[in-house]
Task: structure prediction
Amino acid sequence: KDKLQGLMDEERLFFVSYDDLADLEVNPHQAYRDGPHDQPRYFYAPKIVFVLGEDRKELDILGIQLERTPDARVYTRDNSKPNEWLFVKSC
Result:
């Protein structure tokens, strides 16, 4: 908790919430125009916390919450398997 407070005090902690994505319907963009339409595509509306490096040049991801439920998992580099972390970052 002290580390997070320190990052906030240094103005290096950023929060992004993709609220607008929560309202998208299933497969609204018809990505598979010529393909099967019986396989709907769903969108996540993630919440992401970033930290700005000490040199203030790069952002790194601290955590990602994909779902909008109170008990939704927060994925981090430390609590995820490598392939799982890669998948979560691509959502």
The radius of gyration is 16 Å. The longest strand covers residues 59-65.
